[in-house]
Specification:
Strand content: 25-35%
Number of strands: 3
Number of helices: 1
Order of helices and strands: EEEH
Distance between the termini: 40 Å
Strand order of the largest sheet: 1-2-3
Largest sheet: 3 strands, antiparallel
Oligomer: single chain
Shape: elongated
Number of domains: 1
Length: 64
């Protein structure tokens, strides 16, 4: 894992097509903006985990 320190309006480039920008820092919260190709799916980690759990539950309850 790469850990970086960034200030407001500074960016992080991921590959040649993704830019992560620090938009706002307020207390212990940081708002980020992500610029990526439209075909890339970007989700919060907790949403991805919820979706995965729902998929696993659906597969487990399917008799086939």
């Amino acid at each position: 894992m790469l850990v970086l320190t960034r200030k407001r309006n500074e960016t992080i480039e991921v590959g040649s097509s993704v830019i992560v920008r620090i938009v706002q820092i307020k207390g212990n919260k940081v708002r980020i903006g992500i610029e990526a190709p439209p075909e890339w799916r970007i989700r919060r980690g907790e949403v991805a985990q919820r979706d995965q759990a729902a998929l696993e539950a659906a597969v487990a309850s399917d008799p086939n």
